[in-house]
């Protein structure tokens, strides 16, 4: 069929995003039923897209028998998130974590093993042991690509999805998008859709001012969060920002996960340890922030006390894997781990469940609140999921979406909606003498830094919201002079959506929680009586951004006497010190 | 609204003597997550057309002739 003279592509399962979770979801749907048509749509090229384009140096949340149990993991992540988690979703992850490691191992992903052949687990978290190094993890994307080809997943590279489609019953029906090199639109009708669009990593501005120097792969700009919002899905806990400890001016993690087990640690300017545990949590980030801004700041990664062979091992892992340009950055400043502590700083803000807890709401089956729409990886709300969580929820969503697709016929499409969307996505090409995407993007992201970055202050956030809305009013002036600029222009739409969501969600929760992630100076206390709940952000029937509360599901693992462990992360000085 | 163009020093450098894009190679262009590498119509070689780099390095790692070098963007150096 045609809509607006454009041929409609039909598929059973559509996966949007070909980074980590997406390929696993697509392969799983095919494994469930090879007769299903499965299409994987990617804004870049699946060979090198997403957060792990150059690989990954370790699993940060592996639950390996003999080292930890799913119950211990669920407890620790619940505590690290001040209690606001969906435990059934964490448990589904925890139980599938080890089978997924074995599956990846059988595919040729190498994990570090000790002399007995057991997985070489390291302790980085406050309570349990969950880190599994993978020093040869640079080939993960190649291995995923091979699986996609072997399972005959249809791959469409260089397409940006712009809006999801619903049928008259409110179930998912497909998507509209655009080719990033030709600006030609694409319409896909699907029985089930899996979103694996990554973090919203281009909301805040890195302190360097370089627009693309973000912690997240900048292709992960929040298109998925915006699309989920516009199709009517719930987003959860968006005020729980992602803020990570990074190297100053370099957007890679300083990487206490790699260096910690080898003796490295986060230190203040005196070379002293000030946090008990380098695992990334809101409470840890708050202590980091206090030290950064205090008289003993800034903060450093300390390795200069380590033996030569240890430093060489660290350099090999950190300079060849996840962020290999790091060695080049250090060389340029003549920083040598043997002689210098390495200055650290905090990242720009973003939405990323991989490291914090916000995103499009999904349950333990990967289902969003829109029937037939599933979400996996950094964009979906399962807390602290990291790469292994993306794989596991990719698998869960692949199973769920395959089952959903088999139970229904191809949906009817809303042709009027599609026509309006085609207008919207072509509009920037028709503007003359307009505003370039980079300028509008810089402006909104600078506003996010000025007004929304924690410590959060109510009045500042209110001003910030008004200023962001004023940029939204300028969208009709946004001009693209070629298809590449159109890609950036449409990303600006999503960035503005995400910035508005970040402001409104932060204003809604009138307490402080998750350490620095939602540190609200004028509501400094955690208020469990009113706010022991998930917050919802959604589009109401009038098209306005609305809020609500979602109760925390009854715990399946009780927290016991360790429930406050993450509130005690600052190193305590002895009374006689 | 009138606009101006602003020059910028780009982080990805292509050695035109080594680059074989004019023979049909598009490896670096294919793998770039941000789609900032294009064929320069004047030379037929790959070049960085947009200063939107994550310095992630697939272009350099996957180049079959070692023609691509990724520098740290000047603002961060």
What is the gyration radius of chain B calculated from CA atoms?
13 Å
Overall SS class of chain B? alpha+beta
Taken as a percent bin, the fraction of beta residues of chain A is: 15-25%
CATH class of chain B: Alpha Beta
CATH homologous superfamily designation of one domain in chain A = Fumarate reductase/succinate dehydrogenase flavoprotein-like, C-terminal domain
Quaternary = heterodimer
Low-confidence stretches of chain B: none
- Give the chain pair forming the largest contact, with residue counts: A-B, 39 and 27 residues
Largest sheet of chain A: 8 strands, mixed
Helicity level of chain B, as a percent range? 10-25%
Rough outline of chain A: globular
CATH topology of one domain in chain A: Methane Monooxygenase Hydroxylase, Chain G, domain 1
| Integer tally of domains of chain B | 1
Q: Biggest β-sheet of chain B, characterized?
A: 2 strands, antiparallel
Helix and strand topology:
The complex is a heterodimer of chains A (577) and B (77).
Chain A: E1 2-3, E2 6-16, H1 21-32, E3 38-41, E4 58-59, H2 70-80, H3 87-107, E5 132-133, H4 140-150, E6 154-156, E7 159-166, E8 172-179, E9 185-195, H5 223-231, E10 235-236, E11 245-247, E12 250-253, H6 256-259, E13 265-267, H7 282-293, E14 299-302, H8 308-318, H9 326-332, E15 342-346, E16 359-360, E17 373-375, H10 386-406, H11 415-430, H12 437-452, H13 458-473, H14 483-508, H15 528-531, E18 533-539, E19 545-551
Chain B: E1 12-14, H1 27-31, E2 37-39, E3 46-48, H2 58-62, E4 68-70
Antiparallel strand pairs in B: 1-4, 2-3
């Amino acid at each position: 069929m045609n809509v607006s003279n454009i041929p409609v592509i039909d598929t059973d399962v559509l996966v949007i995003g070909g980074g980590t979770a997406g390929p696993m979801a697509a392969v799983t749907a095919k494994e469930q039923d090879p007769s299903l048509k499965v299409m994987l749509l990617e804004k870049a090229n699946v060979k090198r897209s997403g957060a792990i384009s150059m690989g990954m140096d370790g699993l940060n949340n592996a639950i390996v028998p003999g080292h930890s149990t799913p119950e211990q993991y669920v407890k620790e992540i619940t505590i690290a998130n001040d209690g606001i988690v969906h435990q059934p979703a964490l448990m589904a992850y925890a139980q599938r974590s080890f089978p997924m490691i074995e599956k990846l191992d059988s595919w040729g992903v190498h994990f570090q093993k000790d002399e007995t052949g057991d997985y070489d687990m390291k302790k980085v978290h406050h309570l349990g042991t969950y880190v599994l190094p993978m020093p040869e993890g640079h080939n993960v994307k190649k291995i995923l690509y091979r699986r996609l080809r072997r399972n005959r997943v249809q791959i469409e590279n260089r397409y940006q999805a712009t809006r999801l489609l619903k049928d008259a019953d409110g179930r998912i029906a497909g998507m509209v998008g655009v080719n990033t090199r030709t600006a030609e639109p694409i319409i896909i009708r699907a029985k089930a859709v899996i979103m694996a669009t990554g973090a919203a990593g281009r909301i805040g501005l890195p302190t360097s001012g370089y627009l693309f120097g973000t912690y997240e792969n900048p292709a992960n700009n929040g298109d998925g969060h915006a699309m989920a919002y516009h199709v009517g899905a719930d987003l959860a806990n968006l005020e729980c920002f992602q803020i990570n400890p990074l190297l100053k001016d370099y957007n890679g993690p300083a990487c206490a996960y790699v260096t910690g087990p080898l003796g490295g640690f986060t230190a203040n300017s005196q070379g002293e340890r000030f946090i008990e545990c380098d695992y990334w949590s809101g409470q840890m980030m708050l202590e980091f922030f206090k030290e950064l801004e205090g008289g003993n700041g800034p903060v450093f990664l300390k390795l200069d006390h380590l033996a030569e062979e240890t430093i060489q091992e660290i350099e090999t892992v950190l300079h060849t894997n996840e962020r290999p340009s790091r060695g080049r950055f250090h060389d340029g400043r003549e920083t040598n781990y043997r002689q210098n502590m390495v200055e650290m700083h905090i990242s720009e803000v973003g939405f990323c469940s991989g490291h914090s807890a916000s995103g499009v709401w999904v349950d333990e089956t990967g289902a969003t609140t829109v029937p037939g729409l599933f979400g996996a990886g950094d964009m979906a709300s399962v807390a602290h999921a990291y790469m292994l969580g993306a794989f596991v929820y990719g698998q869960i969503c692949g199973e769920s979406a395959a089952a959903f697709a088999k139970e229904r016929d191809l949906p009817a499409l809303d042709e009027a909606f599609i026509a309006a969307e085609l207008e919207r996505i072509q509009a920037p090409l028709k503007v003359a003498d307009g505003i370039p995407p980079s300028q509008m993007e810089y402006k909104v992201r600078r506003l996010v830094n000025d007004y929304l970055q924690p410590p959060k202050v109510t009045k500042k956030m209110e001003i910030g919201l008004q200023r962001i809305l004023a940029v939204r009013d300028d969208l009709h002036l946004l001009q693209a002079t070629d298809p590449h600029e159109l890609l950036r222009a449409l990303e600006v739409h999503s960035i503005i959506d995400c910035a508005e969501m970040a402001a409104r969600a932060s204003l809604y929760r009138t307490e402080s929680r998750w350490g620095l992630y939602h540190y609200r100076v004028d509501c400094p206390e955690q208020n469990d009586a009113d706010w022991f709940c998930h917050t919802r952000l959604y589009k109401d029937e009038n098209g306005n951004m609305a809020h609500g509360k979602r109760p925390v599901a009854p715990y399946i693992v009780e927290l016991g006497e360790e429930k406050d462990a993450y509130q005690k992360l600052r190193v305590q000085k002895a009374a006689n010190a | 609204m009138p606009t101006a163009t602003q020059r910028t020093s780009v982080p990805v450098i292509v050695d035109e003597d080594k680059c074989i894009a004019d023979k049909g190679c598009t490896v670096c262009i294919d793998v770039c997550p941000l789609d900032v590498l294009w064929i320069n119509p004047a030379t037929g070689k790959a070049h960085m057309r947009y200063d939107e780099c994550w310095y992630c390095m697939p272009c350099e790692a996957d180049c079959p002739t070692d023609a691509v070098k990724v520098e740290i963007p000047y603002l961060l150096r």
